[in-house]
Design goal:
This protein is an alpha/beta fold and 372 residues long. The protein is built from 15 helices and 17 strands. The longest helix has 21 residues. Bound molecules: flavin-adenine dinucleotide (FAD).
């Protein structure tokens, strides 16, 4: 995976691919193809397959604080390691020696998981070392964006090692991945020189926590989440994310998100103790959460599914309009990803027709100019 000119990670071919490899890529790449199994349980048109909806947080105060929201993803990862259900967790962390780069890490201890906690709003490829990880013969949990998890589910259809060795798939809701240029713009706004950076985090250390850059001379520059995500990073989303039907991790066992409290009908980003939204999507995910609660790794409360609409208005809106965006992309580019059984027609019925149409027209205008 290499950074493109646009600042997004793209696969680079190291040699000539034979037709069978190309066929495999077409079947597995979530940028091309996403579908639920035909025999899957009935799924909510907006929020996907759901066993149970909860809010919760890590009971370990440090994990809760370091985590992006309530630290539940990290707490589940630590629980899986400490209960020896997996040998390691494959997850994204800051790269050694470059505070702006992300790399996949093999976490074997609580300290490793803590090092990886927190969202990194920049290109990251958790599957980059998948073959190496599978060749260990060990069992591992994978933490990834919804598209990373969908790719693994696609691969599991043709590679039986996934079912045997990757028993837990953890994800988080994703509004899209900003190109690395978003991070550069954020640092420019903070007045921090990239070459003089000692460390950088996007959020965490509180909820939502600050974007925080520390320069080599120890100077600290900070920006709150509403400004860093809402006015800078979200302007740099790649086109594919705008036509993504799966911002909510429909293929994961457990998916977490921010369980924002509301103010005047909108999420309120005032600093608080962290709280995650926790959706279990499979029997595996549901029993993992129940076990983690029994073991005292997380605490949870049930939540009505309708409450997610208020916590995640962006995800609600995108699922409702994505069919329009997709059709517009197909019309303009002559090609669009194939999505099946994702409830997009039903989801569209919930959208206001004018909003749906405006989104389709906007995408039609933009689809030509933007890189895929
Ligand atoms: C690009 C992006 C977009 C997001 N959009 C939304 C959204 O629309 N709504 C919402 O509620 N939440 C969104 N989040 C997720 C949110 O910020 C929290 O990660 C989520 O609430 C889980 O919190 P936690 O405290 O349980 O996770 P933590 O315990 O902090 O664990 C986070 C995990 O995510 C992994 N991770 C971090 N960055 C990446 C990355 N770029 N790629 C792959 N893995 C990564 C880490 O390795 C870690 O295991 C987004 C996160 C990212 C990275």
């Amino acid at each position: 995976m290499r950074l493109s000119q646009q600042g997004c990670l793209r696969p680079a071919s190291l040699g000539q691919l034979d037709p069978k490899d190309v066929e495999l890529v077409q079947a597995v790449c979530p940028g091309i193809h996403l579908e639920h199994d035909p025999y899957a349980d009935a799924s909510h048109p907006i929020w996907g397959p759901i066993k149970r909806v909860r809010t919760g947080q890590a009971t370990d105060a440090q994990i809760r604080r370091e985590g992006s929201s309530g630290g539940v993803v990290s707490a589940l990862a630590v629980y899986l390691l400490e209960s020896r259900q997996v040998d390691f967790v494959a997850q994204i962390a800051v790269a050694a020696g470059d505070p702006l780069a992300n790399e996949v890490q093999m976490s074997r201890t609580r300290a490793d998981v803590l090092r990886a906690a927190g969202s990194r709003y920049a290109p990251a490829a958790p599957l980059a070392r998948l073959e190496e990880y599978l060749s260990t013969g060990q069992r591992f949990a994978l933490v990834g964006k919804p598209c990373d998890i969908a790719a693994i589910r696609n691969l599991a259809r043709v590679d039986s090692r996934i079912g045997r060795q990757v028993p837990f798939l953890l994800s988080f809701m994703c509004a899209g991945v900003p190109s690395i240029k978003g991070t550069h713009a954020l640092l420019d706004a903070l007045g921090v020189e990239r070459s003089r950076l000692q460390s950088f985090r996007y959020r965490g250390d509180g909820w939502p926590g600050m974007a925080r850059a520390v320069s080599l001379d120890g100077q600290v520059a900070e920006m709150d989440y509403a400004k860093s995500w809402g006015t800078i990073l979200n302007r740099h989303l790649q086109f594919r994310c705008k036509i993504c039907p799966d911002g909510t991790g429909e293929f994961a066992d457990v998916v977490c998100a921010d369980a924002w409290y509301g103010k005047d009908g909108y999420p309120d980003f005032e600093e608080r103790d962290g709280r995650s939204l926790v959706l279990t999507r499979t029997a595996v995910g549901e029993s993992l959460v129940q076990e983690a609660v029994r073991a005292g790794a997380i605490v949870v409360s049930d939540l009505a599914i309708t409450e997610i609409d208020r916590m995640q208005p962006y995800q609600l809106n995108r699922k409702q309009v994505v069919l329009g965006r997709l059709l517009a992309t197909r019309l303009r580019r002559g090609w669009a990803p194939r999505y099946r059984r994702l409830g997009l027609v039903k989801a569209s019925l919930g959208a206001r027709p004018l909003v749906w149409l405006r989104n389709a027209i906007g995408t039609f205008k933009r689809a030509e100019g933007e890189a895929p």
